[in-house]
Amino acid sequence: MTEAPDLSGEQIGRYRVLTLLGSGGMGAVYDAIDPQLGRHVALKILPLGLASDANRLQRFVQEAKAASALNHPHLVSIYEIGSSGRNGEPVHFIAMEKVEGKNLRETLARQPLPLRKAVELVAQVADAVAAAHSVGVIHRDLKPENIMVSSAGYAKVLDFGLAKLRNDPKSMADNDPTAVRSTETGIVVGTAGYMSPEQAGGKEVDYRTDIFALGCVLYEVVTGRRAFRGDSSVDTLHKIIYSEPESLGKLVPGAPAELQRIVSKALAKDPDERYQSAKDLTLDLKALQREVTSPRTSIVRPRRLSVALIAIAILVVAAVIVVMRWPRKSGSAVPAMVLQRVTAKSNVIDARISPDGKFVAYALREEQGQSIWLRHLASGQDIELVPRALASSWGFAFTPDGNAVFYAFKTAADPRGVLYRVSTLGGPPQRILASGFDCAVTFSPDGKRMAWLRADFPGPRESALMVANSDGTGERVVAIRRPPERFVPSFFTAASWSPDGKLIAASVRRAENPVAAKLIGFDPDSGQETLLSKEPWLVLNAVTWLPDQSALIAVGADEAAKVDPITLAATQLWLIPFPSGQRRQITNDLRQYRDPNVTADGTKIVAVALDATVSIWRTSIDGTEQTRLTRGRFDGIAGFAQLSDGRVVFTSPESGTVSLWMINADGTQRRQLTRDGFNNRNPVAFSNGIAYVSTTPAATEVCVTNTEGEGRRVIVRGVDEAPIAISPDEKWIVYNANRRLWRVSFDGRDRRQLTTEISSVPAYSPRGDRLAFIQGDWQ
Asked: Is the peptide bond before 112 cis (omega within 30 degrees of 0)?
């Protein structure tokens, strides 16, 4: 690097240079005075070599002007872009706002940042980057050196567009200033430790390269170490392209799951798997900032243990408010809407909005049980409405007056489910009814009656739509469904009582092939049925009426969804006008939605959105050594197993149906095993092959095949789509049928029922003398 000249006392343009502040690959920065306005500026002098190409310099000027026109609070303001003369040579300069403070690198060197402050600063940077992206400006060289932290504690981003000026190849180290390196495919521009994989490979980049760099910065300010650092620049670039950073959760024990999810998504190797806009990243960081209250946890480095293989499902569940301006009394069009995230807690499983739209109740799944919380939307304040208990929440609902919440809990003592009432002001819950609950209740318009769905009633495998008075008296059956149809069990389903009180809308699912669903309205008194949606559905879960009864909002997937309806259906929000029933899709994204409900004025919906990425990883027991083996979006979501030679068989919907795939122990040679067009899941390896559950047009079966996917053989038919287990001596396969556990010999001749209660997820002990499983719906 050429030493920066001493310009003290000289005049550059209209600016009088005072002292050198610093220098780097993109030029030297001086403290200077603007005599016309009497203010200090940071005057950056561009090296002559960088500005010698008139066309490239003009492009830079255009980008710098675009960025300066934003006037964003977290972008350093650019006052002037000009040129002057010195000793017969042109001098190109940029006069910028002088920020009193230190850059982020210097700030981190002084002391670690509390977690809340770290998230706050990166959120400010992301917001600035989003603003620049909105006018087509990409930074390309985000790093701690280009982020100023003012003496007042806020972030300012420097040097937008400068990286694009460089094109002279040079040696490059991890901590070099912005550098450029020639490659076979193009020019690598940036700083080695903060480049995106596509940038490191010399490929064409877009705004998502900045998102990767933001992920690197976020990782560093939280953990105190760089996400990617090798022994040389080439080693660092190789790590960026092929390796994953050390687990944030291991470096910072107790780090919020949402923080880990944000970092993982920002650092995705594939740009399509990253955040698709810096604005989305900003919103997630701001929501996380509100959740973080504890100081930064110290970094620990646990000892290395033996290597094990696990599948990591990064499941982000966030309650979002969908604000809708609805065509009143028409139901003829999908409304305009704005999505607003309510909470960044990744363990939210259900949510309801109060009739007046001022509160959201939500359930949290935690390691030691589940709890229900109440959030005041205007202030963001939370109160614990139902303390954490070793129970499973099966839905809850506000009363029509908004004064109470009715919730259903299942426990080991009450596996069928008990309904409770708790005031929104808090206090002890009141036990209402111990009848069996498999969804949230829905209230009649006057609040005097309630309806819900019940599984295995009045007999095994049957299900019923129930009605009772709101005080728990007068319980009775409105409608019954018998196999192959059922109301429940179904994934987060719920019925909805119409505003005029004349219909209870509920989805009815055909559980056997062909899998399908339909929406029916039931008269609460007579049980008479009315078809509410004329088109067939692949999946249909919870529904809710609009307050003017012009339409229903439903969660479902139509028959065009070419994925497994049980595990992978991209359930979206739909509008079903009443009485025409001609559905219209509201959302169309990669999230899966559940449990929509509407305010009394019909302007707001709250729903839970599930954003899932599932991959197969190899990791040490303590998590210090990790290797990502697969990169499909849903690899292993319906099961995986490791063979004795280290190969891994896993499920993937890549081919259009859920099929079995295989990779070597190091993640190489990905190949498809099953190509029969059936949905194949829950693989279990044994010495001579693979056992799995296969759903065909005729039945759901337990099958075996060799390790190449050949020689498919049916062991038993009429099973549930659920995990199976093989005894250690490989004589028996345990499977689910009618939600009970059964055992079958490998030749299929010897079958025996093992449990009489609802049971699932079997696992043999190492000696094979005991069997563990989940009993009932309580986990």
From this structure: no
Dihedral (CA of 426, 431, 436, 441) sign: negative
| Diameter over CA atoms, the chain | 98
The residues, ordered by sequence, that sit 6+ positions from 106 with a Cβ below 8 Å of its Cβ are none
| Neighbour-count burial of 351, counting CB atoms closer than 10 A to its CB (0-12 exposed, 13-18 middle, 19+ buried) | buried
Instruction: Kindly indicate the confidence band of residue 162, based on its pLDDT and cuts at 50, 70 and 90.
Output: low
CA distances from 696 to 60, 107, 167, 222, 701 (A): 60, 60, 58, 49, 8
The residue ranking higher by pLDDT, 658 or 450, is 450
pLDDT band at 26 (very low <50, low <70, confident <90, very high): low
Instruction: Tell whether omega for the bond before 302 is within 30 degrees of 0, i.e. cis.
Output: no
Q: Sign of torsion, CA 33 37 43 48?
A: negative
Place of tokens 């490979």: 201
User: Phi, psi at residue 13, to the nearest 5°?
Assistant: 60, -130
Which of 141, 210, 350, 456 does the annotation list as catalytic? 141
- Tell me the per-residue pLDDT of 492-527, one tens digit each, with 9 for 90 and over: 899 999 999 999 999 999 866 566 899 999 999 999
Q: Is residue 407's pLDDT more than 90?
A: yes
Say yes or no to pLDDT of 301 above 50. no
pLDDT of residue 728 exceeding 60: yes
Q: Could you tell me the CA-to-CA distances from 513 to 510, 520, 554 in Å, in that order?
A: 8, 20, 23
> Are 763 and 773 within 8 A, CB to CB?
yes
Counting beta carbons within 10 angstroms of the beta carbon of residue 4, is it exposed (0 to 12), middle (13 to 18) or buried (19 or more)? middle
Evaluate whether 466 touches 444 at the Cβ level (below 8 Å): no
Task: In whole angstroms, give the CA distance from residue 734 to residue 723.
Answer: 9
Q: Which residue in 637, 633, 634, 609 sits closest to 317, CA to CA?
A: 609
CA–CA dist 201, 213 (Å, integer): 15
Cα–Cα distances in Å, from 307 out to 334, 619, 620, 721, 723? Answer: 51, 6, 4, 31, 25
- Tell me the whole-structure pTM to 2 decimals: 0.63
In the structure, what pLDDT confidence band is assigned to residue 324 with cuts at 50, 70 and 90? very low
pLDDT in tens, 212-245: 999 999 999 999 999 998 888 888 888 899 888 9
* Domains observed in the chain: 11-97 (3.30.200.20), 101-302 (1.10.510.10), 319-612 (2.120.10.30), 614-775 (2.120.10.30)
* 393 within 8 A of 350, measured Cβ to Cβ: yes
Is 141 annotated in the active site?
Answer: yes
pLDDT over 70 (residue 31): yes
Q: To which H or E segment does residue 29 belong?
A: strand 27-34
- In the numeric block, which tokens belong to residue 585? 């899709």
What confidence score (pLDDT) does residue 88 get?
A: 77
Number of Cα atoms under 13 Å in the Cβ half of residue 656: 6
* DSSP reduced 3-state for 131: helix
According to DSSP, the residues that pair with 744 across neighbouring strands are 733, 751
Answer whether residue 287 shows pLDDT above 60: yes
Neighbours of 147 (CB within 10 A): 25
Query: What pLDDT is recorded for position 328?
Result: 45
Hey, what are 478's tokens? 């409105």
Rounded distance, CA 395 to CA 420, Å? 11
543 with 553: CB under 8 angstroms?
yes
Task: Report the distance separating Cα 443 and Cα 466, nearest Å.
Answer: 12
Q: State the sign of the Cα–Cα–Cα–Cα dihedral 770, 774, 775, 778.
A: positive
